[in-house]
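Co-fold these.
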Amino acid sequence: MVLEKIQSPADLKGLSAAELHQLTDEVRSVLLTKVSQHGGHNGPNLGVVEMTVALHYVFNSPTDKLIFDVSHQSYIHKMLTGRRQAFTDSQHYDDVSGYTNPKESEHDLFTVGHTSTSLSLASGVAKARDLKKDSYNVVALIGDGSLSGGLAYEGLNAIATAKRNTIVIVNDNEQSIAPNPKGGIYTALHSLRQSKGKTQDNFFKALGYDYYYLEEGNDLDSLIALFQEVKDSDHPVLLHIHTVKGKGFRPAEINREAFHAGGPFSLETGEYSSSAGSRASYSSITTDFIMDKIKQDPTVVALNAGTPMLLFNPEQRRTVGEQFVDVGIAEEQAATMATGLAQNGAKPIWAVYSTFLQRTYDQLSHDMALNNQAGTVLVYLASVYGMNDESHLGFFDIPFLAHIPNFVYLAPTNKEEHLAMLDWAIEQTDHPVAIRVPVGPLKESGEPDTTDYSHLNKNQVTQKGSQVALFGLGNFYSLAEEIAEKLAAEHGIAATLVNPKFITGLDKELLDSLETDHKLVVALEDGILEGGYGQMIASYLGSKNLKVQNYGIAKVYHDRYDTEELLAENGLTAVNIVQQILTALNI
Amino acid sequence: MVLEKIQSPADLKGLSAAELHQLTDEVRSVLLTKVSQHGGHNGPNLGVVEMTVALHYVFNSPTDKLIFDVSHQSYIHKMLTGRRQAFTDSQHYDDVSGYTNPKESEHDLFTVGHTSTSLSLASGVAKARDLKKDSYNVVALIGDGSLSGGLAYEGLNAIATAKRNTIVIVNDNEQSIAPNPKGGIYTALHSLRQSKGKTQDNFFKALGYDYYYLEEGNDLDSLIALFQEVKDSDHPVLLHIHTVKGKGFRPAEINREAFHAGGPFSLETGEYSSSAGSRASYSSITTDFIMDKIKQDPTVVALNAGTPMLLFNPEQRRTVGEQFVDVGIAEEQAATMATGLAQNGAKPIWAVYSTFLQRTYDQLSHDMALNNQAGTVLVYLASVYGMNDESHLGFFDIPFLAHIPNFVYLAPTNKEEHLAMLDWAIEQTDHPVAIRVPVGPLKESGEPDTTDYSHLNKNQVTQKGSQVALFGLGNFYSLAEEIAEKLAAEHGIAATLVNPKFITGLDKELLDSLETDHKLVVALEDGILEGGYGQMIASYLGSKNLKVQNYGIAKVYHDRYDTEELLAENGLTAVNIVQQILTALNI
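Predicted complex below.
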């Protein structure tokens, strides 16, 4: 096995052509074995097997700098840079993250998980090299899916402006996570592929690039020749390389969206081991509700930025037709387009993961909120129970979203509330509204929620007690319930239990009323503590005769954490909080 | 006077060619008279006099939708849409804002002050039109300076993708606020101008646009003919129109950067009435310090996104040469490039207005902070004393920046602290650091600041007292001093006075120690209250025997406010706070 001899990229240099080809076969096989057992990013890595081997054969990492966009396509790179065991030995599968990570290797320059950053990062790395009067290659690898992001364009401009060595590799596999939108940059890439790089209006040449096209982007020898040709260039070059997403695994080549990421799956049949099943979830009820709205009202339009499966599968996308827009990986466009849609009388609903919502602070504020346009933003996986890689955390949303004026941010705790809030958000025209889609198993109250949500900041007191009032926000309402039950059962304390529902403002009347027969207010939130919901309560009550305890997550990039451990470390267990309450009440 | 007859754009329709030409002369004259007396955006509006008259002659606003980017070039539009008096009558100069504003007129679709948003907004407006099966023109006007922003590119892609009527006007005056960077999109525009739109690699055609070039963009008849040609187009068109910034006022045509905005100035000599003078300010000492650093250390590099005058005048830019990078209006690029620079051993210093910093939340978090790279961010005008148009507010920074992990955000209160913090920030390699550049007259302590800022979150107790502790953050430290003086002089109370210096964390040791001989902690911050600094203190002290009062600004888009009035409305006067303290202390 050739791969066994590769401890670092230096070990590739002496390989024969035959050995290099054998190496590509081996790493593809290793990749498929691991991902089929463990899950991960399939298609993106299968498509860059040859490219990665060629890069490490031609360039000299870490002297030459390789910078990966999104970096979920760095598995082969990891295999070739001293981390082989994390792919060949199932006991070590979790030794590496799914993204580049400088803590793992000097060959990884950045921790990256969001798209469209590699070119701007490379522009800085190259500029630092030039200031230090060093000379080596700076190579940025970006996929066509990531090219739709505005930051990628800013980076393209910056590199073109700089005039020194930078090698931009556009890995064009004709696909984002889902199929790319038609038009704009995708028209430009399509024309270039169709013409084998010779189209009249070349987008990259227009920006000043020395442009190279390679049709056979999974051909190792061609890749090596191309990289050798541009290595040590004294000016920016752009290599447009056409690859096949999922290359070498037929099911992944055919069903490219399903095989973007996921698993485990069968190597023989290409079937995923555990299909999502038909059980209702917060996700499925949201989709069903929006589908109904779309059928009833031609002005309802669902928006998404490059992750359409969050809302609709391909079949559903065909059904909703023009009432769904996938803008590509361009979250800012989604937010500002929603503003324009609402201004002109449509009812936009933008579905977005919390971790990517943070790319649009200015669009949420200066566009949607300043103009007070009634768009609906569905915030997914804003929770410690969401994605747990440090590059994809979703629990910073309250500090950055909840303090934007005019925005109404809602935290439902069950199915009925969620759908009532969603209906209200879509139909009202007074405010931009965001909804923190609950995370976890679907809960049903069984009672229709008839709340009028236009009465802003009205909290629901679900249990009237005394001494201690528990504010359980959204996903943590159930924790508040558990604490209330413990206090009652174990200590005879009848706590007041509150479902705040509104994140963007306080129920001051309720808070004022607590002073008469309560000593303590406890606020629980499924997010970071600082700048969060509970701190508003603590501030408001700062002058009153009430003590306040806030519970949330410490402001840290927690990485691949165990959720229960993280919660315990942050004191977020019923047992601990009951104890803290007893202490505060001097019991 | 023709202008006198124009109550709305409908009144243009019956004008003869001669009258239209006379109108352009009149509005230019009116514009110059007002701006020379009152100040405002000179060059941008002078350049679009003919274009605006032609737009309103050919299109039918408000049925046809005109959407202005940045919208500081909307003065002529305002004159022609019922707001003439705000330009012709000096008593009414302040009746209108400097930007489009739906509260003023149905001809203004959006409140806009940040760049690069018009295309995305237009894509939404046009999509809503199509969903409603209406038909009219949607026209988006964007300057070449705004084209460098990633959102503009995302909007270009979206419009090209949509396939229905949208008319994009690129107003190319060969200049951003300052000269545009070379390369990238500016290479593309330059080639198009040089070839009169016929260059081989046409950036806009590559994206799929039906492209038109007009060389004489200040020629009224040509503009009318072009607009008539594309009106009611059934597909997206892009009009690349070459105009002269400052057209018709020689000093503004020559000195385009100085005449981007400002005034009053002399119409005869083109000289500004009040030159900035040579008095030292926080701005000038920052620039001097960075100039010195640059001379001493070739790895120090200053960054800016389209507002280079914030840091360096044109002469200074020539002096610092390659150690200054203006990335164009592309704040995200500045932040992520800084990350790359720091990773590769350079010392980046990014100067940015607070209102524009909010465009980079994800770059500050996912790029700079997650990678923990030691870039320095200088945050200008983060204060109620900064820009006071609702589209340019700078006092939302603490909620969105201070709660990002790893970041150190500092609030200096005088010259010596500011320079000591700046020096530390540049030379250390442990954290990304932002500094809230003080606003207001330069204050000097006269004592060198020898603080070791690597001791994070160590507050400075400047006066040790009892009963009440005053935390005066940054610009509001002087207010805390004033309160302390009043408490002492008028009520015999010796307050503890604290200069927190650190925004991103609390001095827990100090806070813990206050419980022994204090009853009240008061926190003052020059920013919005919610999600701010004081709320962290309130939360931390929520369980202790200390009351807390937080003072800051209410979470509202305050518009063209009087600063002292705004402060008074928010209780931020020494008299009020002293009274509140006395009440809390039961005195």
